[in-house]
Amino acid sequence: SLAAESLVHSYSKSFSGFAAKLTKAETEKLSGHEGVVSVFPSQLRQLHTTRSWDFIGFPQTVARATVESDVIIGMLDTGIWPESQSFNASGYGPPPQKWKGTCQSSSNFTCNNKIIGARFYHAGQDLNDGETISPRDTEGHGTHTASTAAGNIVTHASLLGLAAGTARGGVPSARIAVYKICWTLGCSDVDILAAFDDAISDGVDIISLSVGGAPTDYFQDAIAIGAFHSMKNSILTSNSAGNSGPAAGTVSNVSPWSLSVAASTIDRKFATGVKLGNGRTYVGGSINTYEASRMYGLIYGGDALNRTSGSDSRSCGAGSLDRDLVRGKMVHCDGVSRGDEQARVGAVASTMSLPPDTPLDAAFSFLLPVSVLTNADSAQILEYINSTSDPTGLIFKTRAIIDNSSPHVIDFSSRGPNPITTDILKPDLTAPGVDILAAWSEATTVTGQDGDTRTVPFNIISGTSMSCPHASAAAAYVKSFHPTWSPAAIKSALMTTARQLSVEDNSDAEFAYGSGQIDPIKAVNPGLVYDAGEIDYVRMLCGQGYNATQLRLVTGDSSASCSEATDGTVWDLNYPSFALSSKLKTSVTRVFHRTVTNVGSATSTYTAIVNGPVGFDTIRVEPNVLKFKNIGEKQSFVVTVTALLAKLKQSGIISGVLVWSDGSHKVRSPVVAHTLQ
Asked: Which residue among 255, 313, 465, 651 is the active-site one?
């Protein structure tokens, strides 16, 4: 029996399980018990940290369902700042009748008819001194994601004058339920599962989770387990794909029953000018809210070594700079840092150099005026410093400029292929996640660093954490028009209507952007959907080697088993994309069975259009015409793909596409082939 003092949390509302403090011997003993599906250590997961909605063609004037205010988005994050105008409850009626949740109010936190529920969890980790033990957000991340998904329309929003305009969430009249799972040290699996358990029981419609860790087996992955039970209860989980790009195979949150969202740019970026004493100017990237007052002395970090530190000062690392040499000057550094060392020694500004061949992409805020420059421009600044006895410079306040190259997937966004199930394409799609303005907690500052005094109601940050709530809102928007659609149907609608991105601008192709960039308006009327339910995922898991005991305990269904009837291949999972892989660079053939459901015109005929470039020997669709007579009617087809993997492109992927078209709807699915490196 388990000692009461060892028990950390018991999960009982939506699935069965518990978290406990166990020795290695106790863990091994428990793993061997009948009725135990898996025992895994609780890990600490990390957060995947106005213009965006207009950019993807989703204006403020878009048609809204009358029941949008009945849609509830569960935000699993760092909490929320309830005083933000983004969450003002004016004009809202009481919570929807289906809501069964609660508000863990305290002396410093209350809910309203916008934030209809709020809970916090910290069973999984010890908290630092000064943590706010309530659903209140003291970090900013949760407030930002919640307002991106469902924040009210707020005019005159900006970050100290930058990105000025109207801020709004994708579904501004939807309700928000807050589950604070993340603290200073991270987000514990124990708390993540507890939040899923509550959110499902509370009655949320969509779960948005901008958190992740290293990819792992589905049923040793707390997020995948929680998302599976959400799916069973008709709730789609929208996940960030991770910020570990551009390396291949880094994508996280890859379970096929959840939505994995990459991060892409919008057509606004931030430029921060640098002027030198010789009159030359350069344009770097950052978010600098400070106004330049005059020229300052300019010094290279490599010339300002703190000789007692024993470290290299060229990159301005911790403790490396001499305060007497740097105080009151602008310092140029090789490499990009948070700027703590420059601030510590009294620098007034800093230019920072990117590595060679690294693009100026996302812009970030710093403790002091900073401009991050290309390696080539940095070399010219260093040349200027070495050419004069009195080098000077200044950094201008950042300005917004148009980026006509967008959208493209940002460098940091994690890439496929899927490291757990290689023949399911991940990420699923992409959404805006770069330089996003949204609400912020006023319990912190712009950077959250010591010495930063800028308390702001809105902030600009980047990450797949920012793209995830865009997709969560798009899913909620579709759900508001189609409240009975399954999570798989909503996901299919988002994927098959996504805007295909350019391979020229995204060399990793579908490994970067999946099906493409979300288009919420088109997703409401996709024509056909690839639907799937629990039994479909069980078949896939049987084919992946899970046994009947594991399935019964995971699904809660005592009749679940792996048999001929339920042993399916991954290629037969009714997924809205097609992927095949091989260890060898040879010719490989796979057969995919799919079924589509008509959600468009009752009487309609769809014809298959295939684009299979060099590298595909065949992409054959049988039948290649589907005729429907009723809404809800299902039709099945078979796709046979033969890929010539010897003709792989540099990206390691061969990209094709299958489109079902009835003349007005285009139901598009990527078809990809790759080798296992």
From this structure: 465
